[in-house]
Amino acid sequence: MSAVGSGPMAGRRRGLLHRGPARPGLLHRGLVAVGATVLLAGCTVGPSTRPPLATSGAAGPVVATTTSSSMPLGPGGPGRTADPVTWGSCPGDIDPVDPATRVQYRLQCAEVDVPKVYTDATAGRLSVAVVRISGPRTPADAPPLFVVRGAPGENGTDRPASVAGSVSPQLLDHFAVLVVDLRGTGGSVAVDCVSGQNSRELLAPALDPSESSAGTQLTELSRSLTFDCGDMVGPELSDYSTVLAADDLDTVRAALGSQRIGFLGQGFGATLGAVYADRYPGRVSAAVLDGPADPSLTADKQALALATAQEQALSSFATSCPTFPGGCPLGADAAGAVRELVTTLGDVGSASTDGYEITGGTVLLALADRLGSPSEWPQLATALAGARSGDLDALSAIVQQSLGSDDIAQQQSGRLIYQCNDSAGRLGGAELAAAAKTAKATAPLFGPFDIGRLGVCSSWPATETALPAVRAAGAPPLLVLGAVADPVSPYSSVRSLTTQLASATLLTWQSGTHGAYPTSACVASAVDAYLVKGTVPAAGTLCPP
User: Fold this and answer.
1) Are residues 482 and 516 in the same domain?
2) Cis peptide bond N-terminal to 52, omega within 30
3) Residue 539's Cα: distance from chain center in Å?
4) How do residues 417-437 score in pLDDT, each as one tens digit?
5) Residue 145 β-bridge partners
6) 68 within some domain
């Protein structure tokens, strides 16, 4: 258990969900030996949509180089520099015990200074918090494994034990888990610019921007959000994005004294890992990308892929509803009951007892949050049934829980700035309405809704660090995870990104659950073998439900 109290993070402002440098090293000397791939227990080989992995070799990092001494370079260059990190104790409000497993970890905390603008040395610096997490058998000189799960700021330095609990004990026997507060999220680097009223409106989004009243609502909300955030942050509003967060991770790598790092990301975290591998291919030992987005797609195409996956998940939810304990509380036609509820509440809605306005958009937010977690479908069905009877509290609780309970507006701020700064496109007005109509033809319920959520960025200033298409040329073999019916990270996008990455292998899970690792035993076995032994699963490997 780490000492607590007056460490380098003491006194930092908490505000999200809960609140000697490592010796240079690689993940494991045999990390990317690919020579003979193995068929994992519980997995099968199915058809592949991409060429077989072409890189192979003996023990040691395998990179695409012209000489043994050269390092493959990406857009970020050879890597950042930083003063060595100084580890200390962690603040007393950071719990070293994972609430889910009750395992206690050893925590070390530090802060690393990073440039606000990497192309302008005069722009000042930010201080990002870092936590190093060790298990009972983690070697003192264990190499770092960066873990980023969920949306920006969702799993930061305020809950490191929960992050460590999301990786297997086998990994903690080899690596120290690193958790970093991404710029704009968590503690002193957080941007908190969503006002109370705007926060409530984000929890009751418009259903269909092709309807004039909804389009007007989105336009006004976008202007208000842009004004508030611009007024609070000023011209530095564009200094927060996934590209810059990837540069920060490399600055932390340099502060650790590590030549290369391992990475394990889920959802947004997986997208961040892909961007990092693209910008710094020579600094990657291994990277597991669990449900990444495809940055080459425009925002409207990403939204349509998401809406299509959500419609399919809603159908699966309705089919499963009669099997829930006590039967289906939504009746014989669960999907029809959901659509009726959305229409009844509309864009006006009714207030829950906690004062939140619950609209049809709130219903879709709750579905978007829980459809990727089938184990929580009975609870979701009960909340939806309660809303049909006029009890809106359970539904209100679901959408609030999706953002954490400590500071909802701050969590919304982090997600907003990354969403808007990661995309160069701005959809508003007639263009947004037209895109919503097009999406409605493919995904009648979620199509216009997901397109409409892009409208919050319509007034946002232009960005210089929008997500590019990524290839990660020269990186070692990368492992991408995708679930075929994931309504949070659409499989079509995951598969598309895999084909673009120069050295990626896709491991497919036959499931509708978001987050394959460590939920699937088959996937967990493959990931652990990849990170610890360098074993890459055969192309086309399928893990059972």
Assistant:
1) yes
2) no
3) 25
4) 999 999 999 999 999 999 999
5) 177, 262
6) no
Q: Alpha-carbon distance 288 to 517, whole Å?
A: 9
Is residue 207 over pLDDT 90?
yes
Cα 16 to chain center, whole Å?
15
Q: How many domains does the chain have?
A: 2
11 CB neighbour count, 10 Å cutoff: 10
- pLDDT tens digits along 389-408: 999 999 999 999 988 756 89
- Chain centre to alpha carbon of residue 59: 31
Q: What is the dihedral of CA 499, 500, 506, 511, to 10 degrees?
A: -90
Q: Has residue 13 got a pLDDT over 60?
A: no
Mean pLDDT on 73-80: 96
Look at strands 44-45 and 125-134 and give their pairing.
unpaired
CA angle 364–365–370, rounded 5-degree value? 95
Q: With b meaning 16 or more CB within 10 Å and e meaning fewer, what string describes 235-252?
A: eebbbbbbbbbbbbbbbb
Q: What are phi and psi of 262, to 5 degrees?
A: -100, 155
Examine residue 7 and state whether it is found in any structural domain, yes or no: no
A 10 A CB-CB count for 353 gives 9
Residue 40 corresponds to which tokens in the numbers above?
Answer: 């994992």
Looking at the fold, whether 281 and 395 belong to one and the same domain comes out as: no
Q: Over 80: is that where the pLDDT of 541 sits?
A: yes
Q: What is the pLDDT of residues 296-317, one digit of tens each?
A: 999 999 999 999 999 999 999 9
* SS3 at position 434: helix
Q: Are 405 and 448 contained in the same domain?
A: yes
Whole-angstrom distance, CA of residue 487 vs CA of residue 533: 32
The CA distances from residue 300 to 212, 214, 223, 432, in Å, are: 19, 18, 20, 9
Residues 405 and 519 in one domain: no
pLDDT of residue 472: 98
Dihedrals φ, ψ of 472, to 5°?
55, 40
Question: Domain range holding 378?
Answer: 196-237+299-422+425-457
Rounded CA gap, 273 and 257, in Å? 20
Specify the pTM. 0.88
- Tell me whether residue 391 is in a domain: yes
**Same domain, yes or no: 396 and 363:** yes
Domain annotation covers residue 493: yes
Residues in the chain: 545
Q: Are residues 289 and 303 in the same domain?
A: no
List strand residue ranges (DSSP E) for 90-157, in order: 106-115, 125-134, 144-149
**pLDDT at residue 155, as a whole number:** 83
The domain that contains 127 carries what CATH number? 3.40.50.1820
Say what the pLDDT of residue 186 is. Answer: 80
Percent of all residues in the chain with a pLDDT value above 70, rounded to a whole number: 87
Distance (Å, rounded) from C-alpha 126 to C-alpha 194? 21
Based on the fold, state whether residues 229 and 377 are members of the same structural domain: yes
* Residues 334, 393 within the same domain: yes
CA–CA separation, 356 vs 386, rounded Å? Answer: 16
Choose among 130, 110, 145: nearest CA to 31: 145
